[in-house]
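Shipment paperwork, digital attachment
Item: protein structure file
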Amino acid sequence: MNVEQKLSQNKFVVDEGNPHIVTHQEKMDPAAVKALTMVCPAGLYTQDDSGKLVFEVAGCLECGTCRVAMAHLPGALEWNHPRASFGVQFRYG
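Attachment content:
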């Protein structure tokens, strides 16, 4: 099984209206936005045609990579663990 196949086994329970990650692009420079698009193993950070950061919380692996990548910019990213019974449920490995 490759990585994509293993990840497709996971179950994601999204806490609608209460995301565990909130981005504040106004506190980020273009290099930080680019970094987020590159470091997320699930590929959940992208840029739209105008260069604005787009984040989709559904599918988050809760690995904290984005949190580490933004540690040098306090307030640019709010990262908390999802509430109980929400978030990723790993099904393989």
